[in-house]
Amino acid sequence: MQVxxxxxxxxxxxxxxxxxxxxxxxxxxxLDEPRKVEVFFSENNAKAKEQRYLCEVTVVSHxxxxxxxxxGMELLQxxxxxxxxxxxxxxxxxxxxxQRSHPHHRDTKVVxxxxxxxxxxxxxxxxxxxxxxxxxxxxxxxxxLLSHSFYLFSNAKTGRSAVVYRRDDGTVxxxxxxxx
Length: 180
Known about the structure:
Layout: E1 3-8, H1 14-27, E2 36-43, E3 53-61, E4 64-72, H2 75-101, H3 103-106, E5 133-134, H4 136-146, E6 150-155, E7 161-166, E8 172-176
Parallel strand pairs: 1-2, 5-6
Antiparallel strand pairs: 2-3, 3-4, 6-7, 7-8
């Protein structure tokens, strides 16, 4: 498996690359041959020392994309946190895939992980509504008026479905459907 490393604003030593490659390789045992693994390290401009470095790991495998990111005072500390998050996500993905692919697993209504979390997703409410044609700025305004964390709309500029959402840092993000 090939692990691609990128860094921004920090120097990545060969020992850190080797350690990260070994750990990511061990984590991806949950998957059948991941197609792409990317590890990104950067130095944050955060004032807090515990958020000095950022590490993000993205694993692409057979239609699934698993991404985890975290910050730390040192590169390895940030990677350790990401490794824990990634392990948890990959375990959940493996359980979900097994439930779908093996008939004897389908009878189980709820599977509980080692952390005691229910892994089955149940849709408890369904809603239909008309999707308005709006500019992204108007959609963000509607989202704020409704006090929602996201808003689905048809992008008047592109004619495709889109979502605006409130980001953790308080800004607004846009997800736009790709042109076919």
